[in-house]
Amino acid sequence: MATKQEGGCSCGRVRYSLGSPPMFVHCCHCLRCQRETGSAFVLNALIETDRVELLGSAPAPVSVPTDSDQSHLIFRCEDCQIPVWSEYGGKSKLRFVRVGTLDDPHALAPDVHIYTRSKVPWISLPNGVPAFEAYYDSKKLWPAESLQRRRAILS
Ligand SMILES: [Zn+2]
Ligand SMILES: [Zn+2]
Predict the structure, then answer these.
(1) Which helix (H) or strand (E) holds 86?
(2) What Rg, from alpha-carbon coordinates, does the chain have?
(3) CB contact set of 68 (below 8 Å; sequence gap of 6+)
(4) How far apart are CA 80 and CA 2, in angstroms?
(5) Which ligand is nearest to the Cα of residue 16, counting in written order?
């Protein structure tokens, strides 16, 4: 990623800039994500909250049901209601930024495909990108630098 990635909602009220490349990029094929996006999967860039600089108004959190005891907040523009990122399990220092809200939505590709057991049948996954039926062990997959970054915010 050569330049800083910026993004925002559809109406332009929420604008943000990513201070660095993300730690990891998830493509989640679970049924919750399919419903929440109205699409086939969600593409999330995992990055520290303090590296997401707000350039416009802050999005507002909306709590959505989950399949576990973990909370899930989807942050939406208060005007156009487009979701720009999520927070899982109350981990407020970690953001799951929706890659499709970047001004260059092709800038980030998945580092891993998860919950492929509920993947739509008409998507073929590429060779060379790890894929898991359900979740995965990030300690085995993430680059050391990303693990270090995550430890710094979650420990
Ligand atoms: Zn908006
Ligand atoms: Zn999911």
Answers:
(1) strand 83-88
(2) 15
(3) none
(4) 30
(5) 1
Q: Is 140 exposed, middle or buried (0-12, 13-18, 19+ CB in 10 A)?
A: exposed
Contact 34, 40 (CB under 8 A): yes
Q: Which residues contact 42 (CB under 8 A, 6 or more apart)?
A: 26, 27, 28, 33, 36, 98
Please give the single-letter amino acid code of residue 132: F
Q: Report the alpha-carbon distance of residue 75 to residue 123 in Å, rounded.
A: 27
Q: How far does residue 20's CA lie from ligand 1's centre (Å)?
A: 23
Contact 5, 104 (CB under 8 A): yes
User: Is the pTM value of this prediction over 0.85?
Assistant: yes
Residue 82: how many CB atoms within 10 A of its CB?
18
Judged against a pLDDT cut of 80, whether residue 3 lies above it is answered with no
Nearest bound ligand to the CA of residue 80: 1
Ligand closest to 84 (CA) is 1
C-alpha span between 80 and 89 (Å, rounded): 25
> pLDDT-derived band of residue 155, with 50, 70 and 90 as boundaries?
confident
